[in-house]
Amino acid sequence: MRGIQVKKRTIQNTSSDTNYQQFLLNEIFSFSQSTALQKNALSIYQNNLLMTALRSLSISYPVIESMVGEHALYVLTRRLLDMDKPASGDWAEWGDKLATCLFNSELYESYPYLPDIANLEWAFHIASRSEVLSFDGDSLQRLSKSDLEDIYCILSSSVSLLPSAYPQHQIWQAHRVVDSGQLPDKSVLKAIMSNIDKAEHCIAYQHNGVAKVEVLTEEKLNWMLGMQEGISVASLLDLYPTFNFASWLSEAISKSWLTRLD
Amino acid sequence: MNSTHYPQDCEHGCIGVGLRHEHYTQALAQKTCSIDFVELHAENFFAQGGPSRHLLEEIRSLYPVSIHGTSMGLGSLAGVNERYLNRFTQLDNDVNPIYISDHACFTWGDDSGKPLHAGDLLPLKFDTQTLNATVSNIDRVQQAIGRQLLVENVVTYFSFSNNIFAEAEFLAEVAHRTQCGLLVDLNNILVNMHNQKVQDITVNALKWLSYLPQGHINELHLAGSSLPQMGDIIIDDHSQPVSEQCWQLYTLAIQHFPKAATLIEWDNDLPTWDVLLKEAGKARDIRKAAGVSLRKAIP
Q1: How far apart are CA B193 and CA B200, in angstroms?
Q2: Which of A122, B29, B105, B245 is 20 to 30 A from A176, comparing alpha carbons?
């Protein structure tokens, strides 16, 4: 400003002047100390990025934060920013690759169920943000008018199917019910850990505007995974002849799992 | 502007607060309230469904709403991301806010052919290339939303050595060329001047304001920041009560921009809802006092 005397922290002209913005973005995300930029200024932006990303993960993954602690989540945040940079302008959409990050981390050897808990939390997060269309009741007429070979069940966009070799629902619930910053009751955790090889498959979905997670039997999981793969009702019944389709259909409609029959 | 959502007397300086997650319950339980509007961060309501949409409807039923984007990056040379703009426009259509705003900064870049978002409000070089990009971006946003956008000045932690314009000149030119409104964050001016070691900060902040076209100033943001860190640098964290220096500048600024709305912005380490409302009450008292003194000054 003319007339205002300032001592500026400045970026000197650099060869990257044609796109100084991309240059600055690259410097921030590299988490290195540039020679072209004031050290303090760059550190502030790098720290802001890390702290914002950390806060975003702690909102999307409260159970993972409770399980691994803030320091470990900070380290994971830094790794995740290297692996998967924010791209949408909405932090709530960033962080879906935390499960992969956990799988590749040193935590995995001791706590191999962590990636499944992360997947479950992300699915719950997505379910809470999804637009759920009402079930198209007219599409039920296809059951009487068409061959089952030509009928496909279309799941709601809020639905995620979550296979696991661990008691993921129990672990998630145990950490979820306690206040932020506290740990679950030791006896509860001990009971879960004594049965850690008990597989628990889950479904995350939204019903009446609220995200929910519940345990699925292996039979229902396989049936619904088959639907997601685009297998027709007739072919699914060939694969799972004892499956009670009528009962499942009623449940799926009442819980807003289904959008329509195609 | 939708008059059905425009608070009474708002044309002459309505007062609002930033409504953040921690205060939703109290704000929604309030039977009567001393504020004229609340400001919501756009991205918190980008979800297509779920509880946030219900919450938005509840808030709208009780308060006039201003939408404040934090990610648009209006000075981005890479342009404004189309998907982001579509969601921003959809929210504007759904809410019909009394004001809609974002920042004079850049946020968008490229990551090996994919969009890259900074997650922060990054500084602009005040040169012709950036001016043209900013004007083009604002034109595009205003075309999309079909109304005037307010553009806010930001805190920066360094300046570029080859600026052609001063920040206020840049903003004035942007406003002139796009007919956008300006949202002036008084705390941001003060923080920048502190960090740039400007002498006589209040006097120079008033000079800064004097460069702006009076008719384009629609809103003022007031905030407070934590004490200096990393040497003598203030990090703009909106985590404190409005500073005395900011109140002092506000008292002077509203005489230049008497019609501008006022918003108390507190984003981190939030106080109780009542404390936030008291800050808004203080702004109202200052406005009233300034109105009296202005009337007295008129023979």
Answers
A1: 9
A2: B29
